Amino acid sequence: MHQEHPLSFAEAINRTEVLLQQWQAGAMTTEALAQQLAGLLSSADGRRGFFVVALTGPSPLLDQPPTPVLEQLHRGGEAVVDLVVRNLAMGTAMALEHRRQGHGEQAQGSLQVQRRAQALLTQLDPLAVRQRLDQLLAATEGHGADVAFLERWNYDAAQGQAIAQVVAATQGSLTWGKSQFV
């Protein structure tokens, strides 16, 4: 499918929803989905739109990503790793906030984002993931580039601690072996 212009964030969300519905209904093969994913991952808004839907929505795609999808995500390199790490932090922090507010269903949705992001990170390039997680961990201690990210979302000390804990747990599950997609 030829595109004249990069998709906007909203267009990427809509495109991802349609693609995942078609894939789940069996109207699209996993290989065709992966080809479409390549287009989405080629722009910042496309990547953001894809992950908003794939991490938060009902599709099981990222619960156990098929090999062709993992290959495309791996090809997305550091840009994909960065977004997944940010979603890990946001899902973790928001799960805590939703629990504080007594919003159990929203907390469960945030925990789904956390769980999917954490699992996906263990399947991406371990060196890139470890470096990106180290950067986020440093920010929870008040150092580095991600301090601005945490401050922008007004995460408090308890949320920072929760993020640090999930980062440490994710780092502990990374393998140092060669990625299968190199």
How is this structure best described in words?
The protein has 182 residues and is mainly α. It has 2 domains: 1-75; 77-173. Helices cover 71% and strands 0% of the residues. It contains 9 helices and no strands. The protein has helices spanning 9-24, 30-40, 44-56, 67-75, 77-100, 104-121, 126-140, 146-152, 157-172. Helix 3 (44-56) packs across helix 5 (77-100) and helix 7 (126-140) packs antiparallel against helix 9. The longest helix has 24 residues, at 77-100. The mean pLDDT is 93.
Q: What's the helix and strand layout?
A:
Blueprint: H1 9-24, H2 30-40, H3 44-56, H4 67-75, H5 77-100, H6 104-121, H7 126-140, H8 146-152, H9 157-172
Helix pairs in contact: 1-2, 1-3, 2-4, 3-5, 5-6, 5-7, 5-9, 7-8, 7-9
Tell me how many strands there are. Answer: 0
Which class do the helix and strand fractions yield? mainly alpha
Compute the CA-based radius of gyration: 16 Å
Secondary-structure element order, as H and E? HHHHHHHHH
Oligomer class: single chain
Shape: globular
User: Major beta sheet, specifics?
Assistant: none
Strand content: under 5%
Fraction of residues in helices?
Answer: over 70%
Low-confidence runs: none
Q: How far is the first residue's CA from the last residue's CA?
A: 27 Å
Number of helices: 9
